[in-house]
Amino acid sequence: NLLSKLGLSVQTLTPDLAKQLGVEAEKGVVITDVDESSAAALAGLQKGDVILEADRQPVSDVDALEQVLAKAKNNDQVLLRITRQGGSLFVVLQTQ
Known about the structure:
The protein is an alpha+beta fold. It is built from 4 helices and 6 strands. It has helices at 2-5, 15-21, 39-42, 62-72, and strands at 8-12, 29-34, 50-54, 57-58, 77-84, 87-94.
């Protein structure tokens, strides 16, 4: 699985999960765990971050994120827009 290869464990954001995490986003993919020696960790991704867009496309669930990553795997990197503690930031994730 591409996500685990990149060091990410993720889950589709639900209204309940958003409440638990104190996240304002209504749609997206929550990072539930990051492998410390992975590309995801190097990119600065953290547990609790919510991925809103990948490669400038909105990702509302895990399937959508996997599809974008699969298409982007010929590129060396993918641009993610995430929300963390109420702020929004861009992260470049190396996919090779």
